[in-house]
Amino acid sequence: MSTILRAEGVTRVLPGPQPVTLVRDIDFALSPGEFVAVTGPSGSGKSSLLYLLGLLDRPTEGRISIEGRDTAAMSENELAATRLARLGFVFQFHFLLPEFTTLDNLLIPMRRLGRWDEAEREDRARALLASLGMDEAAGKLPEQLSGGMRQRAAIARALANDPALLLADEPTGNLDTRNARTVFDIFERLVADEHRSVIVVTHDQEQAARAPRQVRLVDGRIVHDSARD
Ligand SMILES: Nc1ncnc2c1ncn2[C@@H]1O[C@H](COP(=O)(O)OP(=O)(O)OP(=O)(O)O)[C@@H](O)[C@H]1O
Ligand SMILES: [Mg+2]
Which domains does the chain have, with CATH numbers? Predict the structure, then answer.
């Protein structure tokens, strides 16, 4: 089976007079169509791990490769281009640009990527919003949307450039149960119907249990990976 993302012996230490180890000895491989929930106590390194796997941070030891390419050999520009084209990010806060409509929030990363012309971009963005039940949000500003809609708009934006892998850090942290369920419904569909991969960090045990693969972190280490036992 092919591997989208592979971490081998990854450790990340913040340097300083008292160095802080964020994660240590991480071995992790992810295939297309895998849906992984990452759980663990507060401060166990979940966000740090997601940043490393999302190529937003670099390991101090070990290696991370994406689609067979070693990221150590990639410049910051190459990493940014890879994130833009291959990865989508969703956080606890939506980070939509408040002065732009939902549609424009989707078009902005698509313009940066430059893969489609403007008419095609708009068609794709509208189709994406429709697929998430968000047609009517296209012309609205983020402040005009409900919390659940805003987070779905943020997911739509994360999907705008057709990423192979979606990384989400506490995406339901600000949502009620119904909206949290909707977010995980979307993740399930991305995996089942579109063969994307999803890594989601969550404290929500009920939703986490829906992911076929479970990874648990304690003190920066993977103490359980259901793919391995
Ligand atoms: N910039 C930093 N400087 C010092 N320590 C840091 C820094 N960033 C993270 N840490 C520490 O590294 C550890 C891992 O943090 P991280 O944010 O990855 O944990 P987490 O599992 O995402 O926690 P939470 O569930 O609260 O979001 C924590 O002990 C945290 O205090
Ligand atoms: Mg965190």
Answer: 5-225 (3.40.50.300)
